[in-house]
Amino acid sequence: MNVAVRHGLIQILVVIACLLLFAGSPVHAQSSQDDKAPVSPIDVPNPGAELWNAVRERGGAEPTQQHPLTAIWEDVLQQQDTAAKSQARSADATSMINASGDQWRQLRREQLIPYGGALLLLSLAIVIGLSFVKRTAHYSESDMIIRRFKVPSLVGHWLMAGSMLFLAFTGLVLLFGRFTLLPLTGSDFFSAFASASKEGHDLFGPIFTFALIIFFFQFVSKNMLHYRDFVWMARLGGLFEKKPLKAGFFNFGEKTLFWLVIFFGIALSVSGFAILFQNLLPGRDLMLLATLVHAVSAILLICLVIGHIFMALSTKGTMDAITTGDVDANWAKADHSVWYEQMKEAGHIRKRIAHASDDAGKEIPVAEVSAEQTGAS
Amino acid sequence: MFTDFIDGPFWTFSVSVFAIGVIWRLISIIRLGVPGDLAVPREDGGAGGMRTILSRFMARPAVRKRALLIVVAGYMFHVGLFALLFFAQPHIDFYVDRFGVPAWAGMPRWLFILTAEIAFAGLIMAWLYRVMHPVTRMLSGIGEHTASWLVFFVMLTGCLALLEQYDSLRVLHFFLAELLLIYFPFSSLMHTFTFAFSRNYTGATMGRRGVDA
Amino acid sequence: MARMKFYCDAERCIECNACVTACKNENDVPWGVNRRRVVTIKDGEPGERSLSVACMHCSDAPCAAVCPVDCFYTTDDGVVLHDKDICIGCGYCFYACPFGAPQFPESGAFSSRGKMDKCTFCAGGPEETHSSDEQRKYGSNRLAEGKLPLCAEMCSTKALLAGDADIISNIYRERVVNRGASVLDWGVSYEKASLRESRNMKGKVSE
Amino acid sequence: MSERLEKGIQALRDKMDARIASYFSSCVHCGLCAEACLFATESQDPIYTPIYKLEPMRKVWSREYSFWGKLGAMIGVTDNVTEEDFANWETLVYDSCTMCGRCSMVCPVGIDITYMIRKEREAFVAAGYTPEGLQAATERAINIGSPMGVTLKTLQATIRSVEKETGLTIPMDVAGADYMALFSSMEIVNFEEYIAGLARIFKAAGVSWTVSSKGFEATNSGIQIGDPEAAKTIVERVVSAAEELGVKSVISPECGHAFMAIRWEGPNLIGRQYPFKVIHILELLSELHENGSLQLEGMTDTPLTYHDPCQISRRGGVIQQPRDLLNSVASNFQEMSDGGDMNWCCGGGGGVSANERADEIRLQAFNIKKKQLAELDGVETIVTACANCRLMLEDGLEHYELSHEVTGLTELIAEHIKQ
């Protein structure tokens, strides 16, 4: 199968899988609530418990057996914070009760963490499974190269990639650490680690946004959809055809990845800034929404990136493009035939410089080059 | 135990290595001497040296046009790091505590954070440029990468310890900063000081010829 | 074991904010942080009611459920406390709490908000009881001295009740039943409250 | 270790002064110098990075002046400069560096790479790794008196031809004249218009001047190749001729490195100050024009631009004078982008033009001039003030099939003398 095609398909599949998983889990599921054994049931009428019950009922469920005393609170509850006043000036001070926090908690504990974690593991498993599939090189190396990315583009990509990986790591620590790391490391270590993760996450977030903006402007013109891409889509990316389909600088799969990264990146940035500057947000509901959007986009983006990294590492010649900026001419011919033709026409195919050493070594055979140069004169 | 060592003897050691090393390096440069210039100067060399020390803080348009990325990244990192080193409140408190100097005004918290963001983005971009650009990739050796990563980790641990609550994080930051201090005199990080020498030598020579170098 | 609860009687609260003041004073709560606050609805209108709100020390506390570092714990007395040495100041407990009880000590952006602060039911924290660390981080530990939270103790109208849930439930139930009765009635004003049962006096319940 | 290698290393060691030590201590390998070097930008080959051309010198510095280098040398991991290095770097140091000094202007830590290249070339001379063309030129300069083999007879023939054309007498060996003019071989051989222009201008301005038959050659191959002894011999020739005639000033001709050699390096080479002044012809013309002794008339409306010879503007400090002069005779003078002290080199300075081996890379580097010229609006005439630049520009223009005309500034001024 054509590599680029597989690249695109895996990414699309991963995204669909993500969406299905989330769609399958009812957001306001209350069912699991019932299974939970109360911590310590109190038989006596308990004012705290009553208030609590009232809150739960307002959360959307049918009123259960209503204690007459709860009615006292109804007055308060119905007023919510519309006309309430308080001497306290802190956030949400006038809102006496806000049930959405509890819904958020349920969503987080019962859907986001288990399903999100499963999705991440599933993506990893798919990638690990695929890495056992033996792949033959799809082109033979030549001594001609084409410049694919200029240095600012490379820097833009890696600045975004680097900050994204750091954010992913620290973010996952905050989301899943309590259930995975904490039992292993103990509270003291995990607390310092989580604090470091949080501070690092906070600080690197804006760097990711900065990188995303730069990245967007660097790559957007190459990711505009072309009629070729609709052909690509219609023929399922050439999955069942022998010859790879025509592709320009980027194929449809890569363009899809770009736009998804931009989409999730914007979602992450906007929600991330909302969380960072939550003291400026008007109410708690927005904060809750922001954290949910943030977590869901992050998990989906990480799944995409897992696929992206796998494709880049497992496809011969691809890492060259994003580390040195140069690609083998045959690589371009195989995967990006249209672009290859353009480059060929413009005369941008050049010979590999023999002495360009990748290991930053100082031992460069200059003599050969100078001989080459002087030979002509 | 570890904390006491890092915060005690090791700190004294690293500061001493830094101070003695830097002074030794500078003296060994000056000791080599500069040959005099017998040509009748157009302008005063001293003024030229001073002018170049200052004027090279601005990148020339000729190079700014061609290498915008590294110029911008360089500015972001250097200005950011300078501000963090000398105007971040925790650092000022530290200097006051350790060296008994009178306190000076620090940056407000929001500016502190913003500066850290800028410095980080600059450092990462500069390092990426180093490994991505064929020229810098060829030129850079282990020394440059060590220096970049050491500075990065010092900054990173500093920002991880932003909550200023965990001693372990503070000590980690402190320890890496001490390693940096020790590494400093033996590396091209010395350009922090020798840049003035170099600019002065060049500026003086060119100044005598009437060129604003 | 007892389960400690607060209860605020909306019929009695006069929005004097003495509970807030008492709390701040007793626990040295920093300026801007309100472990307890008084909320008034229909201010200046008929049917005005006030309530003093703080941590309700829930049995199934949402704050504890969402904390990414699991720093909340429930004492034997049913008081929900958190460990500030473990808290990383993320604010999730503040999101989850229906009462807005956990508070950021500061209001800046980024990480400048510090570690969360919340009502301790005047039960201190995980530090050694009555140690200076405990006092500095969490405030006083009245419960260990056998005293109830100062906010409730200070309440001039006894609107705010604190203590074992069973006991304050009973007190409250009596109040509800007695409401509307003449204070001149012996059984109402004095101890023999049970008299009203036999007199068939119906309490004023707002149903 | 062979003797020549030892000599080379010893020379590198001897060149080490505070400047070089400070420069190597400061370099963070930021790569900005590559953005300023015409060989690096036009070839896109990192090997032409200016600071990389100093690698042999840096190796010696590292071994003997840096902690890690010393430590490495002690345990035998830091390798010393080898003969191979000298052989490999010879092309970098001589073929792909014109010592134009552009890199020295952009270095953020202020490293004067040009200064170090000159010092490094001295070590290459000591070790005997020099390009044949330059070597031969230096030998000719020492033995015959001019790198191009111009003898007094050639000069006399040129002078006769100029005298015939202009009807003026060129004063030879006049003792007590105010100014003694020097020429570069190329002017004598290729651009006698310069000598004619000079004669006309001095006649019009009433300047008392002369040409010495003993020291008329201004160029200095010793400086280019990096041979202080040869350079000293060549400078001394001029100095003794000037002292013999008792002139007040010596005029450096329209030649870049000649000005640098006689004006800035000369006193240091011979180890004493001159009893006369050294002035560049453009400085003199500007001075004469300003004090009114040189009256100009007529403005040409031909669009023209000025190519700054590196050693005159960037490394010599004569930047404003040519612009003032041009503006007084041309109404459509256009500045090239990066003109002035950041102008791009013609590619042939610093001995590269005398080094045939470098032709290919030199012509590739000339592409930058092509780009600069393309930005201008209808300019078909390039004015310059260096015979070598002029030759190199003509060569490059021909190679890129451009039709621009190249002329000397002195000639242009001579055309506008008020009769």
Structure description:
Chain C: InterPro entries: 4Fe4S_Fe-S-bd, 4Fe4S_Fe_S_CS, 7Fe_ferredoxin, ET_IronSulfur_Cluster-Binding. Chain C: GO terms for molecular function: 4 iron, 4 sulfur cluster binding; electron transfer activity; metal ion binding; oxidoreductase activity. Chain C: Its cofactor is [4Fe-4S] cluster. The complex is a heterotetramer of chains A (377), B (213), C (207) and D (419). Chain A is mostly helical. Helices cover 65% and strands 3% of the residues of chain A. In chain A, α6 (151-180) runs antiparallel to α8 (187-219) and α13 (329-335) packs across α14. Mean pLDDT of chain A is 75; it is low at 23-48, 58-72 and 356-377. With 207 residues, chain C is of the alpha+beta class. Chain C contains 8 helices and 6 strands, in the order βαββαββαααβααα. Chain C has helices at residues 18-27, 62-66, 92-96, 132-138, 150-154, 165-178, 186-189, 195-199, and strands spanning 4-8, 37-41, 49-53, 72-74, 80-82, 160-164. In chain C, the strands form 3 sheets. In chain C, strands 1-6 form a two-stranded antiparallel ribbon. A two-stranded antiparallel sheet of chain C has the order 2-3. In chain C, a hairpin with a 7-residue loop joins β2 (37-41) and β3. Chain C is globular. In chain D, β5 (304-307), α18 (320-329) and β6 (333-334) form a beta-alpha-beta unit. The interface between A and D is medium-sized, with 14 and 18 residues. β1 of chain A pairs antiparallel with β2 of chain C, so a sheet runs across the interface.
The main sheet of chain B comes to: none
Query: Roughly how many Å is the radius of gyration of chain A?
Result: 27 Å
Q: What are the low-pLDDT stretches of chain B, counting only 5+ consecutive residues below 50? A: none
Average predicted local confidence, pLDDT of chain A: 75
The number of domains of chain A: 1
| CATH fold assignment of chain A | Fumarate Reductase Cytochrome B subunit
Q: What percent strand of chain A? A: under 5%
Assigned CATH architecture of chain B = Up-down Bundle
Pfam families (chain D): CCG (PF02754), Fer4_8 (PF13183)
Protein name (chain D): Fe-S oxidoreductase
Domain 4Fe-4S ferredoxin-type (chain D): 18-47, 89-119
Keywords (chain D): 4Fe-4S, Electron transport, Iron, Iron-sulfur, Metal-binding, Transport
